[in-house]
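Batch job 17 of 40 flagged for manual review because the log was empty.
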Amino acid sequence: MSTVNASGFGGYKSGGSSGGAFSPNAPIINTSPGQVIAKPKNIIRVISEIQSLFVLENKMSHEIPGDFLTLENSIDLFNVGAKSGLNEGLLLVLLLPAIDFYLIPFVLKSPPMPLKIVCGAIPYFTLIINTFLCAYISRYYVGNITRKAINSFLIGRIIVLMTKSFLIYIFYKILTGMSTPERVWAVAQHAKKNAEVIYTGYMTILPHIMPVAIRCSLLILIAAILPYGAVLSRDAWKQYKTKQNLIKVTGKTQ
């Protein structure tokens, strides 16, 4: 984050009716367009920038307007959230069929339950880790700037993940609906010598496809909503505690 304020000098402090005054201890901020935060590239970078904004807001003696975070900054955060959701969903889409519909039933065949759970969880590792990282930033949902930054980031992620959840369900619903024995056999015949093996294998896993697809869609949906729910819940709790403390101090229930 830059250390020069809008006037071009660090440590410039507004002084009300008496005009501005220089103070070397005043918070130093940059209000140049597009320079509030560096352009983030991943979730870790987003969290780091939000932490910086959180520290900035805590140092200021007055509330900073939300517009301090520019439209360009908001779009950058939205894009990182959307990209995160896209990558998580893509990895899940690629690994899920390979593990649930090939590795477990045909390679491992009848694995012990612990191994089956571990293998089944592999496609969701990235999704789970990023979900907890996103939930972690709820502690910084305090001022105008941090709220705006977190909202921009999480909304981008939510939109993509919810879309992925819907598309995965629709894709497997259509696939299973079209998978009649006649059509499966017609497709399997393209493999010539292995046609019977492919047909038998596919028809074996066919009853299990929709339960796995539903589980996958629900987990993606939870991963999309959970971080934002954590943010809003923590914020509601903070506001409740603040209100209760105010009642204790003033004796008024408003």
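Reviewer: the log was empty due to a logging misconfiguration, but the result itself is present. The chain has two domains: 1-32, 33-239. Unflagging and moving on to job 18.
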